[in-house]
Amino acid sequence: MGQSWKCKQRQDRGDFKVFTVRQDDCESPRTGQVHSFYVLEASDWVTIVPVTPEGKFVCIRQWRPGTSAVELELPGGIVDQGELPEEAAARELREETGYAAKTLIRLGSMSPNPAILTNRCHFFLASDAVPQGQQELDSAEEIDPVLIDQSMIPKLIADETLRHGIIIAALHYYDLYLRSERA
């Protein structure tokens, strides 16, 4: 059974706007050796599963520097300091798509990568999402909203058109929600 490691020293290594890097020197409970680990401290994130009254997903297409490609995703973003995750979900939906939802339902949350990240990602269903005005993009965003039929999702994942792991997790949480509602 895994045991907790004792952190002997913690040092800040850099601030990069959307995350900071710290070095943790921790002692192995099994060997007593101290090892250095690098941790990304990041704010929590939200991912929204917006569904129109007609049952379509409001997705977005945007260029991502990590893959140097335009990716198909769901809207989402950072939870600002002092903001509740549900407030961030409503804000990000409006900013990225120009849509608003009648109801926001919390689907769950997860640790995106506990090996190196400190944050959590919160998932919300935005039911009855309808256009409510223009997008409110910041200068580093170029986002195109697109409506996707829910029946297309398995194909889009299989052919890697939709390949963002957190988006796939959000869709899984949505599927679990639907199954629990039908039970």
Give the helices and strands, then pairings.
Elements: E1 6-15, E2 20-27, E3 34-41, E4 45-51, E5 56-64, E6 69-73, E7 76-78, H1 85-97, E8 99-100, E9 103-110, E10 121-127, E11 130-131, E12 143-149, H2 153-158, H3 165-182
Parallel strand pairs: 4-10
Antiparallel strand pairs: 1-2, 2-3, 4-7, 5-6, 5-12, 8-11, 9-10
Keywords:
single chain; 183 residues; alpha+beta; 4-stranded mixed sheet; 3 helices; 20% helix
- Look at the structure and give the mean pLDDT: 97
Query: Structural class of the helix and strand makeup?
Result: alpha+beta
Report the β-strand fraction as a percent range: 35-45%
Name the shape in a single word: globular
What's the helical proportion of residues?
10-25%
Strand order in the largest sheet: 7-4-10-9
What is the total tally of β strands? 12
Q: In angstroms, what is the radius of gyration?
A: 19 Å
Would you identify the regions where 5 or more consecutive residues have pLDDT less than 50?
A: none
Biggest sheet: strands, sense, closure? 4 strands, mixed
Q: What's the helix count?
A: 3
Order of helices and strands: EEEEEEEHEEEEEHH
Question: What's the N-to-C terminus distance?
Answer: 35 Å
Oligomeric assembly: single chain
What features would you describe in this structure?
By secondary structure, the chain is an alpha+beta fold. The chain has 3 helices and 12 strands; from the N terminus they run βββββββαβββββαα. A 4-stranded mixed sheet has the order 7-4-10-9, sandwiched between helices. A hairpin with a 4-residue loop joins β5 and β6. The protein starts with 5 loop residues before the first strand and ends with a helix. The mean pLDDT is 97.
